[in-house]
Write a structure and sequence with these properties.
- The structure holds 2 protein chains of 2 kinds.
- Chain A is built from 26 helices and 22 strands.
- By secondary structure, chain A is an alpha+beta fold.
- Chain A folds into 4 domains: about 180 residues, no CATH class; about 210 residues, no CATH class; about 150 residues, no CATH class; about 200 residues, no CATH class.
- In chain A, strands 3-4-9-6-8-7 form a 6-stranded mixed beta barrel. A 6-stranded mixed beta barrel of chain A has the order 14-15-20-17-19-18.
- In chain A, a hairpin with a 2-residue loop joins strand 3 and strand 4.
- In chain A, helix 9 runs antiparallel to helix 14, helix 14 packs across helix 24 and helix 23 packs antiparallel against helix 26.
- The longest helix of chain A has about 40 residues.
- In chain A, about 45% of the residues are buried.
- Chain B is α/β, with parallel strands linked by helices.
- Chain B has one domain: Rossmann fold (3-Layer(aba) Sandwich).
- Helix content of chain B is about 35%, strand content about 30%.
- In chain B, helix 3 packs parallel to helix 5.
- Classes of the chains: A alpha+beta, B alpha/beta.
- Chains A and B meet through helix 1, helix 10 and helix 13 of A and helix 2 and helix 3 of B.
- Chain B: Belongs to the ABC transporter superfamily. Macrolide exporter (TC 3.A.1.122) family.
Chain lengths: ~800, ~220
């Protein structure tokens, strides 16, 4: 009997190749999309879960409350982790993790290692990264100890054993010893490093005493709790701990700290502190999209199968007459549906493997290296395929097996009203989902375009930024570069728009005349910085060589800082006093607000001061012509003046836009899956339209004989479906508005959701539907009526 | 074999009520060949469907081999049907996706006959119907006469006691029609009871008895000599 079922299933598939193709194709594309999204979601959820002690590891973060605001910090003060370990026996170990872009040199080989990390000696005790060589307990203990990943070590040492060898680190060229080789870190970790350098290098050599600083904040800190320790209980002990160690200092500075613990496994997806983090919201969004795509594919399946019911009706009748009972027939049709899903499963495996490299590229990370060797994944997909087959097959099986043999054999079969209503309902759901995705995609892209094109308040075009770090000869380099042709101007600074910058404890005279304690973002610049970036002054003046005091006793604020201090106009702030990091002086100017961070965040109070010693970046304004030649000549100067460091540069506009990389990826993924959803919906619509056309062949013939034109016929066949598409639009629009409104709320600066977006999505959905239906309708409309009548 | 008494079947729509069978009573003995004739809409096919356990009457009694089957549910009807009744239709009703062999094999599958026995039985029947050489062909590759022979083969493959034929020659030319009628006559001579609905006086003459119907009732019975 089973053999008979499969035989019929395969012959049916072959006989109705177009329908089979649409059905299998829809399911394959749907399942492929779901599989890829599943891989993406699984990858996102896997971050830092591979560490054996992950359940006991927590990141220590801090909220710093100043008189004006609460600042969320990614890490506590440098002194905190060590003292926590000292005070609380339930804490087994701690490590601070400070990512940095460090220069490494071995003979002529030199690289800026962007993924360098300063780490404490317990790093390998806390995290599960494997050391291939060296002792995990001592590898990062001594100052100037370096642990490299296997592939990084290969860059410097080739096939030679790197253990015990010396490498020069930082621009000073301090000799350091390779004390360990670790396995390359996987991509799914938030603590990603290619080179680790012992934290004692900083605490005992470069910044002695930093271990006891309670108001200088380290980037990240992780603690390992002893088994059975409750993190919440520990967290509750922190206020007393802070009061004991730094209560006096907090009161003096008027900066009150609250320490919090974040589970290591949740940092990547749930924490809002830090860059390069994932988003649980995106995980949800893509999971929902995957589900939607699967639903759309299943709907196609149900629709096409029940639409074809009349064709199978005769077979049902014959089988019933031959002795089949309903459960047997239901099993047969369910079996067929599983066969289709199984074929789709096989095709999905192939298609996914084919698309995986492109999808990795699209997602911006290697979410998976292959499908076939992932046994559990293949099993899961097969299981999903069978479940889809069962779910999508149940209704058609129920309908088909219920036919009365005498009716269907006498040809008195008519597609039931119920079936029609269900099919219409399903088409509406499909198109509602698709239209909502179209609206979502347009809004995502509108926001992207808004962010790219918004006036940022400075000129980012044709600005090349050369990383000089704190090389002593950077002044000489600036001079040499200024003399080159095609160079308009240049400036040294510690920060450029889009880059990192310090936050500084500051006291600034407010509108009441008090020195208000606050934390100000801080830019260190030189005289040429403000004109180079074309910042506009709102009041006062920019730094000038004419004023000797400008280099130490002058500060420029942005408008946000002026507002925070309570001034009604920028002019009021001019001449007011400030104290910051050991410097005192007066406010000499106010610049108009500019976006020095991405548009996700609002413009914060910013202070700008001159301090050549802290500058590390050389901004060079170049002529648009011959840019490659200009870069080559800058590189030549760089290599002559600073031969020890690799030449590293970027264009500011690209650098600034990289902040939107995550959004861009999100947008691209969203677009791709929306297109897929629409494609699958259209496949279904095409199938239904061709079926409806087939069923109405005789009617079309009669109408044509009676004088109907081609457009009359197309209109006749299209209008029923168009009605459904229009209804689906009215369902999709408010739902999409609601969710996209929430999505946009995360951007400090955002586009408005205009009516044209809905109009465009509606027109697009209708257009896509019309084209899909018209292909079939046109064919039927231009056919010879005599032929179609004879067909009947 | 068949004893029906006061059988009534009424089709109702919202506005119209059509009496298809109006308290009809008929007896058919085992081994008989009965033809049912009458104008379109007189209730012939409805009667045949009820006799074939494809439909149930509204009222009345239907004894099949002395068992009251009028109130049988779908499952019981299917069970009785697949072991006792074979069907031949005007439009052949073969499954297009199955070969000749597989079409004939179908009733044996549903009665749970083993594969080896099925093969043997199907080949026997195909041979008897002189269609063995077409065993691997699909219905659409056969002529009308050949298709109907396959349908007859399918109807008899389970050795049913009763064959119900609904205008079996209606879609055939006279030569093929005669062939099919000869087949049915042969089967009847071998002991199978046959009830045939037909419009053709010519075909009806192959039967032992003609029951003529009008408006859901029997109006005349002719015994054929």
């Amino acid at each position: 009997m089973l053999k008979n079922y499969f035989k019929i299933a395969f012959r049916n598939l072959w006989r109705h190749r177009v329908f089979s193709f649409i059905n299998i194709m829809g399911l394959t594309v749907g399942m492929t999309a779901c599989l890829l999204i599943f891989l993406y979601v699984r990858f996102e959820l896997s971050y830092d879960r591979f560490h054996p002690k992950a359940d006991r590891v927590y990141r220590v973060v801090a909220d710093i409350k100043t008189p004006t605001e609460t600042l969320p910090s990614q890490g506590p003060a440098w002194a905190v982790p060590g003292h926590i370990k000292f005070d609380f026996p339930e804490v087994e170990a701690f490590t601070r993790v400070a990512p940095e872009n460090l220069l490494f040199r071995k003979g002529d080989i030199k690289f800026n290692e962007a993924n360098s990390i300063w780490a404490d000696s317990a790093f390998f005790q806390i995290f599960g990264f494997k050391l291939l060589k060296g002792d995990p307990r001592t590898a990062l203990k001594e100052p100037f100890s370096v642990v490299m990943s296997a592939s990084t070590a290969k860059k410097y040492f080739g096939k030679a054993d790197p253990m015990g060898q010396t490498i020069l680190i930082t621009s000073e060229g301090s000799p350091a010893t390779i004390t360990g080789i670790m396995q390359d870190m996987p991509e799914n970790t938030q603590v990603k490093g290619d080179v680790l350098v012992s934290m004692t290098t900083i605490t005992t050599q470069y910044a002695k005493g930093i271990d006891d600083q309670w108001s200088n904040y380290s980037p990240w800190a992780y603690i390992l709790l002893k088994p059975g320790t409750d993190a919440k209980t520990l967290e509750k002990k922190f206020p007393a701990f802070l009061e004991k160690w730094s209560g006096k200092e907090m009161k003096e500075l008027q900066m009150f700290v609250t320490l919090k613990l974040e589970k290591l496994k949740e940092v990547y997806l749930y924490s809002s502190r830090g860059d390069s983090l994932g988003s649980i919201r995106n995980v949800y969004i893509f999971s929902i999209i995957a589900l939607f795509i699967l639903i759309i594919a299943c709907i196609n399946f149900i629709n096409l199968t029940t639409a074809r019911a009349s064709e199978r009706a005769k077979e049902v009748g014959i089988r019933k007459v031959a002795g089949a009972v309903r459960p047997q027939l239901a099993r047969q049709f369910l079996g067929e549906s599983i066969v289709i899903c199984f074929i789709a499963f096989l095709l999905t495996l192939g298609l996914s493997a084919l698309l995986l490299p492109s999808f990795n590229q699209l997602a911006g990370k290697t979410i998976s290296t292959g499908i076939f060797h992932d046994g559990p994944l293949v099993a899961l997909l097969l299981g999903t395929g069978i479940v889809i087959g069962l779910l999508a097959g149940i209704y058609p099986a129920f309908v088909l097996s219920s036919f009365k043999p005498i009716e269907v054999l006498k040809g008195r079969f008519a597609t039931g009203n119920k079936g029609n209503i269900l099919r219409k309902g399903l088409v509406i759901s499909q198109f509602a989902i698709s239209t909502a995705l179209i609206i979502g995609t347009i809004i995502v892209y509108t926001q992207m375009s808004y962010m790219r094109n918004r006036e940022l308040g400075f000129n980012k075009d044709q600005v090349l930024v050369v990383e000089t770090k704190s090389e002593k000869k950077r002044g000489a380099l600036q001079e040499a570069i200024s003399r080159l042709p095609n160079i308009k101007t240049s400036a040294l600074s510690a920060s450029v728009p889009g880059s990192g910058h310090p936050g500084a404890y500051s006291e600034v005279e407010n509108v009441k005349g008090d020195l208000q304690i606050t934390n100000l973002d801080l830019y260190f610049v030189d005289f040429d910085y403000i004109p180079l970036y074309n910042f506009k002054m709102a009041a006062g003046r920019a730094f000038s060589r004419e004023y000797k005091t400008d280099s130490g006793q002058a500060m420029i604020l942005n408008e946000a800082a002026v507002r925070m201090l309570g001034y009604h106009s920028p002019d009021q702030a001019i001449g007011k006093k400030f104290k910051q990091w050991g410097h005192e002086g007066r406010i000499i100017g106010v610049i108009q607000d500019f976006h020095y961070k991405s548009l996700q965040t609002p413009i914060k109070p910013l202070s700008i001061r001159m301090n050549w010693d802290n500058t590390t970046l050389l901004s060079v304004k170049v002529n648009a012509a011959n840019i490659q030649k200009t870069i080559a000549s800058i590189e030549k100067e760089f290599k002559t003046i600073i031969p020890n460091r690799p030449f590293s540069y970027y264009f500011l506009d690209e650098f600034f836009d990289r902040q939107y990389r995550n959004e861009e990826r999100f947008g691209r993924l969203f677009l791709n899956f929306a297109v897929l959803a629409i494609f699958i919906s259209c496949l279904g619509l095409l199938g239904l339209a061709s079926y409806a056309t087939m069923q109405r062949t005789r009617e079309i013939g009669i109408r044509k004989v009676m004088g109907a034109s081609v457009s009359n016929i197309i209109n006749l066949l299209s209008k029923d479906f168009l009605k459904l598409v229009i209804i689906s639009f009215f369902i999709a629009a408010p739902v999409a508005w609601y969710f996209m409104h929430k999505w946009l709320a995360d951007f400090a600066y955002r586009t408005s959701i205009s009516w044209w977006i809905f109009a465009m999505a509606g027109v697009l959905a209708i257009l896509i539907a019309v084209v899909t239906i018209s292909v079939q309708a046109f064919r039927a409309a231009v056919a010879n009526p005599v032929k179609s009548l004879r067909t009947e | 074999m068949i004893k029906i008494r006061d059988l009534e079947k009424i089709y109702r729509t919202e506005e119209v009520e059509t009496v298809a069978l109006n308290k009809i009573s008929i007896d058919v003995k085992e081994g008989e060949f009965v033809a049912i004739m009458g104008p379109s809409g007189c209730g012939k096919s409805t009667l045949l469907n009820i006799l074939g356990l494809l439909d149930d009457p509204d009222t009345g009694s239907f004894l099949f081999n002395n068992i009251e089957v009028a109130n049988f549910n779908e499952r019981k009807r299917a069970e009785l049907r697949k072991h006792n009744i074979g069907f031949v239709f005007q439009s052949f009703n073969l499954i297009d996706e199955l070969t000749v062999f597989e079409n004939v094999e179908l009733p044996l599958i549903y009665t749970g006959v083993k594969s080896v026995d099925r093969k043997k039985r199907v080949e026997e029947v195909l041979d008897k119907m002189q269609i063995m050489h077409r065993r691997n062909h699909y219905p659409q590759q056969l002529s009308g006469g050949q298709q109907q022979r396959v349908a007859v083969a399918r109807a008899v493959v389970n050795n049913p006691k009763l064959i119900l034929a609904d205008e079996p020659t209606g879609n055939l030319d006279s030569s093929n029609g005669n062939e099919v009628m000869t087949l049915l006559t042969d089967l009847n001579e071998q002991g199978t009871t046959i009830i045939m609905v037909t419009h053709s006086e010519h075909d009806a003459r192959y039967s032992h008895r003609i029951i003529r119907m009008l408006d859901g009732q029997t109006v005349l019975e002719n015994i054929m000599v």
